[in-house]
Amino acid sequence: MAVYTEIDDDALVDFMSAYDVGEVLSCKGIAEGIENSNFLVTTTSGPFILTLYEKRVDAADLPFFLGYMDHLAGKGIPCPIPVKTRDGHDLRELSKRPAALITFLAGMWPKRPTAQHCGGVGEGLARLHLAGEDFDGTRANTLGVSSWRELLTSCDGHGDNDQATLQERLNKVLDTLESQWPSDLPSGLIHADLFPDNVFFRHGHLSGIIDFYFACADAYAYDIGICMNAWCFEADGSFNITKARRLLAEYQRVRPLSDDEIAHLPILCQGAAMRFLLTRLYDWVNTPADAFVTPKNPEEYIKKLEFHLSVKGPSSYGLDL
Amino acid sequence: MAVYTEIDDDALVDFMSAYDVGEVLSCKGIAEGIENSNFLVTTTSGPFILTLYEKRVDAADLPFFLGYMDHLAGKGIPCPIPVKTRDGHDLRELSKRPAALITFLAGMWPKRPTAQHCGGVGEGLARLHLAGEDFDGTRANTLGVSSWRELLTSCDGHGDNDQATLQERLNKVLDTLESQWPSDLPSGLIHADLFPDNVFFRHGHLSGIIDFYFACADAYAYDIGICMNAWCFEADGSFNITKARRLLAEYQRVRPLSDDEIAHLPILCQGAAMRFLLTRLYDWVNTPADAFVTPKNPEEYIKKLEFHLSVKGPSSYGLDL
Q: How many other C-beta atoms lie within 10 A of the C-beta of residue A196?
């Protein structure tokens, strides 16, 4: 959860007057998104989400993110649409931050994802991949495989002996990931952060995908690996193959995986676990104890990585080969 | 800000189905209220506020708080109305917490209160006092003058030398407050926490009063003292007599103060400053460094208390005597 920046009420009314969205009725900071400040603004024409972009998002990337969302929405993906002012602008400034008003999506994110949710997210992810293919914009994955070594090194020397042992272990895993990482899988724009709190459901069906601020170009199957990590483990750390099977089956109903993608699923899942493990580890060792946002414990992703290192092959994810 | 408790999506849909409010469209934790978890729930019939009461609110007081809001709303005070289920219940349970659904109020709280806002709050406070007179319920002020000594003592020995000096000073002020505190001023139900973030405005006019979870029986003029502390000081700590004059004038247009109330304004303002100083000091010395909510620095209220101790009399608050 996060609300970092306060909005002056007069400044908000002034900001909102540039849009054709009626009169502002209220503005509440909401616990949605980790990187930015989000507000639910109700107007006489309904609810909207107002996002102020905080420093962890590179302002230069914002036109890409907003354009990508707009493009996806136009292709029928249920994602927020950046609202344009009467002058045609969607990226503006408020409280000295880049700011955008986006449409509100009905639905709730699943606190306890079921296999049905996993199926929905698999299908939604495949549709998102296809819908982005003709988008005229791109963004490099700044948290891709080539960034992981430096991220790991920057966690060095902050911890105790356990930490040193962990670093050593992760360095060895990274050696393998770097040498065996596939470079010619089908690629395009991926969400890259499709965790349960970024997916809304209504009556059991996917009704919204939000938070596109990690979207970038990478292998589609790597995005599946991110989702498998985020959706298919239970709270006790165990892997739920039924959920994975549903996720993969529903994905493939829309976009069948190539043999090459399937063969690489284990290493892609390892990499996805490594990526979230490393950013969490980085925040864990670098966040001051009195910080506003409590960092997520990397432990969960250490266990997930170990699982993916232990699998026999793609069949361990529920694929009938 | 505060969202302490997570709500399961299925449990929410089940909970909401007991009301005639349409279908749930979304539920967002909002940064409103310090003591409880608040959610903005949008349904097909509009927005509502769902409050889960956390441990700092005594569950035994909840029927009083909800009944009082319902009563005030019936008298035209723009406060949230507890929504009743089809079976007539307004106090229920969700996520193992007492829970209530209340109506949503349009408006925004003023981040930079002006004299006009202060006038609005003065008038609103007087109307609230009058509207509560025939409410058939009451609640003792557990944070009234008789509680302050124990609160101060419980902050003992947690701090350094500065803290010890402060405690000594506050004990002396308390001696005076206890011996001179008025006991026969006009009394009734007061809001007792009418800070800017609990008052919404729209087009410059008061449109909502929220957060009644400190409401209790006490002297009406003490509630004015709380508002003077909360609304009439500038960010640099200086007292703005123009704002105080407006607040008092608009209050008196609705409910004129007696000579006795006016004469006691300085000590009531001192007491109000002491009450917030003490709870902030208590939280300050007792909150672990890694706590979720950052406690408010008591320093602001030490300065306010010193101001009220320095005034010559009621005329210092802008009253023409």
A: 18
